[in-house]
Write a structure and sequence with these properties.
Blueprint lengths: L1 E8 L4 H14 L3 E8 L7 E9 L14 E6 L2 H6 L4 E10 L6 H4 L9 H8 L2 E5 L1 H8 L5 H10 L6 H11 L5 H12 L2
Parallel strand pairs: 1-4, 4-5, 5-6
Antiparallel strand pairs: 1-3, 2-3
């Protein structure tokens, strides 16, 4: 059983990442449950997606409870801090180092916490910091940061490289497949 929590801000591609993971699990014979929570996602608000994969017993709940996530895949640093309660004691946090300012910060009513990464490192034994946005930009678009992060995650899951390529081919629009494969490879080879 693998419990993955994907967190980010609306528009970062968290839902595509969960779709790719769900497809990957399904075609490999896993019982798969995917659930998403949209706040004000279309306006830059938080998005949380739960992905549960099991190859030995059925999954009855779509929700990953606190302290049950094997991996938190965070598309933004502050969202990573907010997701810390989900992580198992020996779980891994994969964090895109991008900062997206929430509305209270934008309008001057709050400050973006300067110590996000320090909090994450203090709370987690396994932290992978990735400039996924910069890597994706090098591939042709910052929007492929989600797939860079999936490339990093791939090393923690029992699926073959070819399975990941197949999942990308079957879930990404045709004109963006090559760019996303390149982005995946950047994360995978990190």
């Amino acid at each position: 059983m693998f419990n993955i929590v994907i967190v980010g801000v609306g528009g970062q591609g968290t839902l595509l990442a969960s779709k790719i993971l769900g497809y990957l699990g399904t075609v490999n014979g896993y019982d798969v449950r995917v659930s998403e929570v949209h706040g004000m996602s279309q306006r830059g608000g938080s998005v949380v997606t739960y992905v549960r994969l099991s190859n030995d017993k059925p999954i009855y709940s779509t929700i990953v409870e606190q302290e049950q996530a094997d991996v938190v895949l965070a598309f933004e640093k502050l969202e990573a801090v907010r997701a810390l309660p989900y992580l198992k004691e020996d779980g891994a946090m994969i964090v895109n180092t991008q900062e997206i300012l929430p509305m209270p910060v934008v309008i001057g009513q709050a400050e973006y916490p300067a110590d996000c990464m320090a909090r994450i490192h203090a709370a987690c034994k396994q932290v992978v910091e990735v400039d996924a946005t910069g890597m994706a930009t090098a591939c042709g678009t910052f929007k492929a940061a989600n797939v860079v992060l999936l490339g990093v995650l791939a090393k923690k899951l029992p699926f073959q490289y070819a399975d990941w390529m197949n999942a990308i081919e079957n879930n990404v629009k045709e004109k963006f497949i090559d760019m996303n494969k390149k982005a995946f490879d950047m994360g995978y080879n990190l």
